[in-house]
């Protein structure tokens, strides 16, 4: 059953977030041969349309307005709803990011539609679109489908394989005039808590530190290792509570949920609330001096040792590898 699917793209620092391209791939599956239309909202966004087309979007719609320069719930809801009214999609996909978590329930409510959030896989079977999503902090998975109306969904970053990039792919780009009537909130300033770099939720490699890292200085060592992998640094709440790093790095039940290819946990005990945020990592390496630490039960590879000895050794060996490449 061919469907028209609207993919709501996400832009940060003037760049398209990778999860938007993953959403295009999910959109293609849901569309079952129908059209995938990608939407970009912002002040000036047209230059990002080609990337969406190269990764599988059939058409790109841009909604440009000075009021959409920064994300606000009101502004983006109005813009997305304007495009939905025009396009009449049967499916809507966006990233399960802070923005997607905020926007998707509003859109679904306005459409009186069902919403499956935080999906890690999507398939179609006999006309049904079936989403797989983790439940109970990643200890189990459920399969869910929406039986009537528009199919709204958000997808977890780093889980859905991108379609192959095709630079010769063509698709139209249309600009839609959106009127933003009223904004109840206005962004006056954005204060960054972490340095520029790889986004934690989209990082392929994460080096995370816990209370065992012992200081903010200790986190510099983790940064050095993460940089060698072009990865990002994360943390347990223990490390954030101890002021070794900012809470924006916290991974877990009350922090970020991540799914990197490689998660290196350094000096983290492996409390259930931490595992809730990282247990779906593809490969987990734990470094802990306590052989009984629960993190080893969640790890594919465990190194029992002092992280201040092990991490410098890893850095040294990786540097040799990089020189030899
Ligand atoms: C409602 C609620 C929500 C929570 N949400 C989260 C969350 O989102 N994320 C989260 O992480 N936690 C969360 N927690 C806290 C969680 O329960 C743990 O307290 C926290 O994860 C512990 O952090 P940690 O592993 O860094 O510290 P610890 O438990 O103190 O572990 C430190 C580890 O470092 C090891 N170590 C020490 N020195 C070294 C060394 N030199 N080399 C190697 N290893 C060393 C120790 O053996 C130990 O295993 C939550 C708790 C509650 C109640």
Protein model, in words:
The model has no long low-confidence stretch (mean pLDDT 95). Helices cover 30% and strands 26% of the residues. α3 packs across α4 and α5 runs parallel beside α9. The protein has nine helices and 17 strands. With 325 residues, the protein is an alpha/beta fold. A seven-stranded parallel β-sheet has the order 7-11-6-1-4-5-12, with helices on both faces. β9 and β10 form a beta hairpin. The site of flavin-adenine dinucleotide (FAD) has 28 residues, from α6, α7, β16 and α9. Flavin-adenine dinucleotide (FAD) binds next to α6, α7, β16 and α9.
Distance between the termini: 48 Å
In what range is the share of β-strand residues?
25-35%
Biggest beta-sheet profile: 7 strands, parallel
Helix content: 25-40%
**How does the helix and strand content classify structurally?**
alpha/beta
Mean pLDDT: 95
Global outline: globular
Order of helices and strands: EEEHEHEHEHEEEEEEEHEHEHEHEH
Task: List the uncertain runs.
Answer: none
Counted beta strands: 17
Alpha carbon gyration radius: 21 Å
- Small molecules held by this entry: flavin-adenine dinucleotide
Q: In order across it, which strands form the biggest sheet? A: 7-11-6-1-4-5-12
In DSSP terms (H or I, runs of 4 or more residues), the helix count works out at 9
């Amino acid at each position: 059953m061919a469907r028209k699917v609207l993919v709501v793209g996400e832009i940060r620092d003037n760049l398209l977030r990778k999860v938007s391209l993953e959403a295009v791939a999910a959109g293609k599956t849901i569309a079952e041969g129908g059209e995938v239309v990608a939407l970009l909202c912002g002040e000036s966004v047209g230059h990002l349309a080609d990337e969406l087309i190269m990764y599988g979007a059939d058409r790109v719609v841009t909604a440009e307005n000075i009021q959409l320069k920064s994300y606000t719930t009101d502004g983006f809801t109005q813009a997305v709803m304007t495009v939905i009214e025009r396009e009449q999609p049967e499916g809507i996909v966006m990233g399960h990011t802070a923005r997607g978590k905020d926007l998707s329930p509003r859109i679904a409510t306005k459409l009186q539609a069902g919403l499956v959030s935080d999906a890690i896989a999507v398939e179609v079977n006999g006309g049904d679109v079936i989403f797989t999503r983790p439940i109970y902090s990643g200890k189990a998975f459920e399969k869910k489908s929406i039986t009537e109306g528009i199919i709204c969904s958000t997808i977890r970053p780093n889980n859905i394989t991108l379609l192959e990039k095709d630079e010769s792919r063509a698709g139209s780009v249309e600009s839609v005039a959106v009127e933003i009537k009223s904004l109840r909130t206005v962004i006056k300033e954005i204060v960054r808590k972490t340095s520029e770099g790889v986004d934690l939720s989209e990082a392929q490699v994460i080096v995370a530190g816990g209370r065992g890292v012992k200081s903010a200085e200790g986190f510099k060592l983790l940064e050095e290792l993460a940089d060698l992998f072009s990865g990002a640094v994360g943390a347990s709440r223990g490390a954030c509570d101890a002021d070794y790093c900012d809470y924006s790095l916290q991974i877990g039940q009350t922090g970020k949920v991540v799914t990197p290819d490689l998660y290196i946990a350094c000096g983290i005990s492996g409390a259930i609330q931490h595992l809730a945020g990282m247990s779906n990592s593809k490969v987990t390496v734990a470094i802990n001096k306590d052989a009984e630490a629960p993190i080893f039960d969640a790890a594919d590879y465990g190194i029992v040792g002092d992280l201040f000895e092990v991490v410098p050794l890893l850095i040294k060996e990786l540097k040799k590898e990089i020189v030899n490449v």
